[in-house]
């Protein structure tokens, strides 16, 4: 089995721990990615060394997560999370263990993890430790809980979202007992923080298979945020018809859910999921634009751009093409690439220019708007001398 070689700073952590008489393994997502031929973004190590021993061996360590046995080791400005072998107590909040206990063996540590593909360990010698059959499940493209799936999800309800997100990202199917447990335990999702739910939903939306959001909804994981689930005949396949960008995918999801009566409006849905104000504003404006007639002339595009801004109009054009077909985005790009004026900042005269010819108060604002409307209709006339003449003054 060909594996990606960990970077030098990661190997240094492993070999240093071993040299001090401790067991040390790469573990979790980085091993899964290595087995799949994907270069990991993060590197996690599990070890028999206690957190205090890890910090003694690596003096520049940071005690981030030390309450749960994790120390962040810093090597040449790079970070590696090192966690002591542990078992976990009850999860009264269905998210975090109430207490952890340090153990001396690797298998006990791996048994607490979410899925078999994430319960594989790799020591520096490259001999894979795989007590739960994760390697075979990766080869078979299966997501399977470690041990009893109901217990795993009762411990941490976010794992249900992770199962569906991994399925969308990797193209794996969820094993039958694991899938059935998700449906049984879905009510626990209502107790998760909106921020956690938002982050998992966004990762799924940005995956290669965002249409699998309908499986997440069908399982009941978003019941706390929806008026009702999608009808049996409805799908979300059009999510994949917009580019893989955060704004586009959130706007498209909101539009599809509103279309089916699952949410009242994009703004309400996204506020409850604690999206940032920029995304909420853009998606709300996008929904408003989609209820307007499609612009037929460049000046109509410019009026929309002036009212809603480039971001929201672009988002709406992308969504309209995905929903209805056509070439709205191409028409919009043509207008944008023309460089023609659609906002005050591109107008050839300013408020100061109009002050200089004697305009004041509401009359000044009205004149600026008149000149902008004129220039959007006749872009070739966006000239300072001509606009000052129209405003009732003359350029000296």
Write a short abstract of this structure.
By secondary structure, the chain is an alpha/beta fold.
Detailed description of the structure:
The longest helix is centred in the last third of the chain and has 17 residues, at 361-377. The protein has helices at 8-19, 29-35, 51-57, 106-110, 134-140, 149-155, 158-170, 176-185, 194-205, 213-218, 246-259, 266-272, 277-290, 298-308, 310-324, 328-338, 351-356, 361-377, 384-390; strands spanning 24-27, 44-47, 70-75, 78-84, 86-88, 100-102, 121-122, 142-143, 173-174. The relative contact order is 0.06. The chain is elongated, with a radius of gyration of 28 Å. It is built from 19 helices and 9 strands. With 396 residues, the chain is α/β, with parallel strands linked by helices. It folds into 3 domains: 1-140, Beta Polymerase, domain 2; 226-338, Methane Monooxygenase Hydroxylase, Chain G, domain 1 (Up-down Bundle); 343-396.
């Amino acid at each position: 089995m060909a594996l990606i070689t960990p970077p030098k700073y990661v190997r240094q952590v492993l070999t240093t721990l071993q040299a001090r008489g401790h067991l040390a393994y790469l573990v979790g997502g980085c091993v899964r990615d290595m087995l799949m031929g994907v270069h990991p973004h993060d590197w996690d190590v599990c070890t028999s060394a206690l957190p205090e021993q890890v910090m003694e061996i690596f003096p520049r360590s940071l005690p981030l997560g030390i309450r749960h046995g994790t120390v962040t080791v810093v090597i040449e400005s790079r970070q590696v999370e090192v966690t002591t072998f542990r078992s976990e107590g009850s999860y009264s909040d269905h998210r975090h263990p109430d207490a952890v206990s340090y153990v001396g063996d690797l298998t006990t540590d791996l048994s607490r993890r979410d899925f078999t593909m994430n319960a594989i360990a790799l020591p520096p010698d490259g001999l894979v430790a795989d007590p739960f059959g994760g390697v075979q499940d990766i080869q078979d493209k299966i997501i399977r809980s470690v041990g009893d799936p109901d217990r795993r999800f009762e411990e941490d309800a976010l794992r249900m979202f992770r199962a569906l997100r991994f399925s969308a990202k990797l193209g794996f199917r969820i094993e039958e007992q694991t899938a059935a447990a998700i449906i049984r335990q879905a009510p626990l999702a209502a107790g998760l923080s909106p921020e956690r739910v938002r982050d998992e939903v966004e990762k799924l939306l940005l995956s290669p298979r965002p249409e699998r959001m309908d499986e997440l909804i069908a399982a009941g994981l978003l019941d706390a945020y929806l008026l009702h689930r999608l009808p049996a005949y409805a799908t979300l396949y059009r999510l994949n018809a917009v580019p893989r960008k955060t704004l586009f995918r959130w706007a498209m999801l909101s539009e599809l859910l509103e279309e089916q009566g699952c949410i009242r409006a994009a703004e309400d849905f996204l506020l409850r999921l604690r999206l940032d104000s920029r995304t909420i504003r853009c998606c709300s404006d996008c929904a408003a634009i989609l209820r307007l007639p499609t612009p037929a002339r460049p000046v109509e595009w410019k009026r929309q751009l002036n009212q809603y801004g480039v971001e929201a109009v672009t988002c709406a054009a992308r969504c309209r093409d995905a929903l209805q077909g056509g070439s709205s985005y191409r028409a919009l790009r043509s207008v944008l690439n023309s460089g023609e004026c659609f906002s005050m900042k591109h107008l050839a005269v300013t408020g100061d220019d109009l002050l200089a010819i004697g305009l004041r108060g509401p009359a000044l604002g009205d004149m600026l708007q008149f000149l902008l409307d004129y220039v959007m209709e006749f872009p070739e006339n966006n000239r300072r001398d001509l606009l000052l003449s129209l405003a009732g003054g003359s350029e000296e």
